[in-house]
Amino acid sequence: MGRRRDADRIAEQVDTGLAELVPDPDRSRSWTLLLDGAPQSHVDLTDPTHLEFEYVRRLAAAIDLVAPAGAPLRVLHLGGGALTLPRYVAATRPGSTQRVSEVDGALVELVRRALPWRADPRLRVRVGDARAALAASREASYDVVVADVFAGARTPARLTSVEYAAEVARVLRPAGWYLANLADGPPLRYARGQVATVRSVLSRACLVGDAAVLRGRRYGNLVLIAGRQEPPVAALTRRAAGDWFPGRVLADADLDHFAGGATVVHDADATDSTPPPPGIFSVRR
């Protein structure tokens, strides 16, 4: 199949900025969602198990490993984008009950129209604030909470505090897991603070990412996995090492060292996550 032209691009103003859907020149029926130029999601409409973004594969690996293969889960997604992970869970764990909270209603309608997901009464997308969605959820109602919320390429302050983490813990079942996409760069002050903050509520945790990012050498995405029981570190390590872009897993003493005395973040002193360096985002045009 020939390479698609720039004319296939879809661009619309949504509530949070300029949304662009860019066709993947190498994969038929695959698209990248950009918001104000920052890549947010990649979706393969033919194969929802194809995950282009490195950090999404790390989130998916965690979801694969926290319960027996194929077993349905109850999942709350904070941040929707183009619904890459909800589509993945629906394909790999049929019968799962999923709720997606996305603050941008116009973006939801664009994705629904241009990149429709397969009809599934167990997958519900609601327009609203992520923290409000948590507050409205019943205690111990989810197996997994996934946080991938960005506004202007930064995670809002209200989703970085210990009060927020306590709400996540409240809605998780006793054996449940919190999975968070943390974007940060040198000196990793935000990521270290998030590890300390989340571990003060959900004490068993590990961090997965590219070695250069974990060492504070460049900006990138780290995936935090936290719960009340030990995470599957060995299996996660194997998955990370075998990825297209191999990664490392920090746990136990290594994670203690990473957090390095970072203080717990509270609502009163919370700030948005670290902004990305200028010009870091680019896609094939």
Tell me about this structure.
45% of the residues are buried. Helix 1 runs parallel beside helix 2 and helix 1 runs antiparallel to helix 8. This protein has an 8-stranded mixed β-sheet, sandwiched between helices. A 4-stranded antiparallel β-sheet has the order 1-2-3-4, covered by helices on one side. It is α/β, with parallel strands linked by helices. It is globular and about 50 Å long. It contains 9 helices and 12 strands.
Number of helices: 9
Distance between the termini: 18 Å
CATH class: Alpha Beta
Number of domains: 1
Mean pLDDT: 94
CATH topology term: Rossmann fold
- Helix- and strand-based class? alpha/beta
Low-confidence stretches: 1-5
Strand content: 25-35%
One letter per element, helices H and strands E, the order comes to EEEEHEHEHEHEHEHEHEHEH
Query: Largest sheet at a glance?
Result: 8 strands, mixed
